[in-house]
Amino acid sequence: MAASSLVTEWVKGKQMEEALTIKNEEIVNYLSLPPIKFHYSILAENSIKAAVKNYKEKHGKSTEERYCDGVDRDKGRAL
Question: Where on the phi/psi map is residue 77: left (φ > 0), alpha (ψ -120 to 50), or beta?
C-alpha cells in the first residue's frame, strides 16, 4: 500500500514518459523496504507502465502532451 501511495504522489505533475522512469529500486530505497516486501515496489512500477499503456491505447495521443494530475478515486480514472 505504501509503495502505491508513494508512486501516486511521485507521478503527479510529471509527463507520462517521465513517470515511466520511476523504478522499483527507487521505491525500495525510499521506503527502506525489507527484501520480503520488494514485490510491492515491483507492483507499483508495473502499475505505472500499465496505466500509461492503457492511456495510449484508449486515446492514441502522445504521452508527451499529458501530465499525471492524479486519480479520481470515485470514478477510478486519471484526472
Answer: beta
- In CATH, the number for domain 2-70 is 3.90.1010.10
Tens digits of per-residue pLDDT, 7-33?
999 999 999 899 999 999 999 999 999
| Distance in angstroms (rounded) separating the CA atoms of residues 28 and 25 | 5
Question: For residues 77 and 50, what is the distance between their CA atoms, to the nearest angstrom?
Answer: 13
Domain extents in the chain: 2-70
CB-CB neighbours of 40 under 10 Å: 19
Look at residue 1 in the predicted model and tell me its pLDDT. Answer: 76
Whether the model pTM is above 0.85? no
Contact status, residue 45 vs residue 23, Cβ threshold 8 Å? yes
